[in-house]
Specification:
The chain is α/β, with parallel strands linked by helices. It has one domain: 3-Layer(aba) Sandwich (Rossmann fold), CATH 3.40.50. The protein has five helices and six strands; from the N terminus they run E-H-E-H-E-H-E-E-E-H-H. Helix 1 packs across helix 5 and helix 2 packs across helix 5. The C terminus is likely disordered. GO terms for molecular function: peptidase activity. Keywords: Hydrolase, Protease.
């Protein structure tokens, strides 16, 4: 796990460089999928959809990057499995990056975490949801405690928006660096790269 506070000016180059290095350890993917988990119903849980909407504005029309989970079309517990099934069918050779908000210790609030393994969404709320992606970014938006639903409802939206802006810059830079390194649609001999779990 790697981490930087979102206000640290080094957070964008530091985390994006690590993300690109992770991709280069597993080359052979032909496209990028970013899955932004969350809902627009609670300010604290809107980090993912806010990131997704920002990415959609910046990367719309790019044939190499596909964004799932925006404010208009969020990806959450109720439609997650359906979304992962659709992604597995449409993007079988995609490098998958997941984004989600999380709760943590109070002194870690504002920290961005890059974790080089699939995301386990809903862990703070004790939800059993399928793992997502090859790597993921989490933003610690508030303090973990006994009333986590209330915490999500009463998190500052301005704070979450600021954090989403930094995460989106990290991902735009990462995608721009990865795109030239993507494999062609056809690998020699019809090979398919190995994949980490993506919930399918």
């Amino acid at each position: 796990m790697h981490h930087k506070h979102y206000l640290d000016k080094r957070s964008v180059p530091f985390i994006s460089e690590l993300l690109v290095k992770h991709y280069l350890q597993h080359p052979g993917y032909t496209e990028i999928v970013v899955i932004c988990i969350g809902t627009n119903r609670y300010s604290g849980d809107s980090l993912g959809p806010l990131v997704g909407s920002r990415l959609f504005e910046r990367l719309e029309g790019n044939p190499n990057v596909h964004i799932y989970g925006t404010l208009d079309k969020p990806v959450h517990a109720l439609n997650l499995q359906k979304t992962l099934t659709a992604i597995a069918g449409k993007h079988s050779r995609a490098y998958i990056i997941a984004v989600d908000a999380c709760l943590g210790q109070y002194y870690k609030i504002g920290t961005l975490q890059l974790v080089e393994e699939p995301l386990q969404p809903g862990a703070s709320l004790n939800k059993q949801l399928p793992p997502i992606g090859h790597i993921h970014i989490k933003g610690i938006i508030n303090n973990y405690g006994p009333l986590n639903h209330k915490v999500l409802e009463h998190t500052s939206l301005t704070f979450v928006q600021e954090m989403s802006a930094v995460i989106s810059r990290i991902l735009v830079k990462s995608c721009q660096d990865i795109i030239p390194r993507l494999a062609s649609k056809q690998l020699p001999g019809g090979q398919v790269p190995s994949r980490l779990p993506a919930g399918n």
